[in-house]
């Protein structure tokens, strides 16, 4: 697959990526001191960080979601802030506000918790639409406007929003257009029994090992630009497009049976994020080129929140996951 591209020097790209991605193992090892099991979540956090995207995490309380992003922030020595979303939260509580200073008879700006490298938006579906949109503007534009001043947010900037799939009372579900802003939606499950045993032991012992800084922010920024250099063959691009287009026009891909189950397919943002996430996955695996397995590894996280299912699908207990599985199994791998 690679040989016919004489203009692209895969060997040198590979060498460069191998050098730039050396810190990934260090970072993962450091996070594993504290995060037991949850390998999938840790990997997805790294993909979000390297791909300059944001992550929506869905899982029941107590699965170390807050702990994971806090540990990552410590390991790269980035600033961390946590915003607990509640129904009475205001946009100013997230982005900041103008405060009147009587001494100088003027307004000064007080920045909100959004000004950090790593922001945890806990239970994002508990806050009203106004607050959600304030956060989403910051995520999309990487900037915040307070009064008539605009501030560029620090880099790297990663938002990890969590939502609890169980409680629906007193929640404001995120609209499709807003969910689409998240590069990945990762669903996390309970740990295995052996892992939970280790968690119990660590907690009874009185906490985990101390997390040390193993990478600096400069290295992360370098890695973010190196990810873009990971080579993606045209056949892989075509594979990504086939998967995304099959969510829109399944009948053209021999998938007529799922057409009535899909209310809307993935947007172009889906294609872009699938390509970026595949490159990040290859980078984490310390490879300078993307293979179909990379695409298949991230396809669920990138597309599960971008495919709308119809009432008919809901009635038959069919999820967007099932539809992605059908599409991936049907589409020819290059």
Automatic annotation (TrEMBL):
Keywords of this entry: ATP-binding, Nucleotide-binding
Keyword presence, Nucleotide-binding: yes
UniProt-recorded Gene Ontology molecular function terms: ATP binding; ATP hydrolysis activity
Residue intervals of the ATPase AAA-3 domain: 54-184
InterPro entries (UniProt xref): ATPase_AAA-3, CbbQ/NirQ/NorQ/GpvN, ChlI/MoxR_AAA_lid, P-loop_NTPase
Domain ChlI/MoxR AAA lid: 259-327
UniProt keyword annotation of Metal-binding present: no
Pfam family name, one: AAA_3
Similarity comment: Belongs to the MoxR family.
Protein name: MoxR-like ATPase
């Amino acid at each position: 697959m690679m040989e016919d591209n004489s203009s692209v020097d895969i060997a040198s790209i590979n060498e460069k990526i191998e050098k730039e991605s050396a810190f990934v193992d260090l970072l993962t090892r450091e996070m594993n001191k504290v995060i037991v099991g949850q390998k999938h979540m840790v990997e997805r956090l790294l993909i979000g960080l390297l791909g300059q995207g944001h992550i929506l995490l869905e899982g029941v309380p107590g699965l170390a979601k807050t702990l994971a992003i806090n540990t990552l922030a410590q390991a790269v020595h980035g600033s961390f802030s946590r915003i607990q979303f509640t129904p009475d939260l205001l946009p100013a509580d997230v982005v900041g506000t103008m405060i009147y200073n009587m001494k100088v008879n003027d307004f000064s700006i007080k920045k909100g918790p959004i000004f950090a490298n790593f922001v945890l938006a806990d239970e994002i579906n508990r806050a009203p639409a106004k607050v959600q949109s304030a956060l989403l503007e910051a995520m999309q534009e990487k900037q915040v406007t307070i009064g008539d001043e605009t501030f560029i947010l620090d880099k790297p900037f990663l938002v990890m929003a969590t939502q609890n799939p169980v409680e629906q009372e007193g929640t404001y579900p995120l609209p499709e257009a807003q969910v689409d802003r998240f590069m990945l939606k990762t669903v996390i499950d309970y740990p295995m029994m052996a892992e939970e045993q280790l968690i119990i032991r660590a907690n009874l012992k009185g906490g985990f090992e101390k997390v040390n800084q193993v990478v600096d922010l400069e290295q992360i920024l370098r890695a973010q630009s190196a990810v873009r250099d990971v080579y993606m063959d045209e056949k892989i691009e075509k594979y990504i497009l086939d998967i995304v287009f099959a969510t829109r026009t399944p009948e053209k891909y021999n998938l007529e049976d799922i057409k009535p189950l899909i209310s809307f397919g993935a947007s172009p943002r889906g294609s872009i994020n699938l390509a970026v996430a595949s490159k990040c996955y290859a980078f984490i695996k310390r490879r300078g080129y993307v293979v179909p397995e990379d695409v298949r590894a991230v396809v669920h996280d990138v597309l599960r929140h971008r495919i709308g299912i119809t009432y008919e699908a809901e009635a038959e207990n069919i999820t967007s996951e099932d539809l992605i599985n059908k599409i991936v199994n049907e589409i020819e791998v290059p």
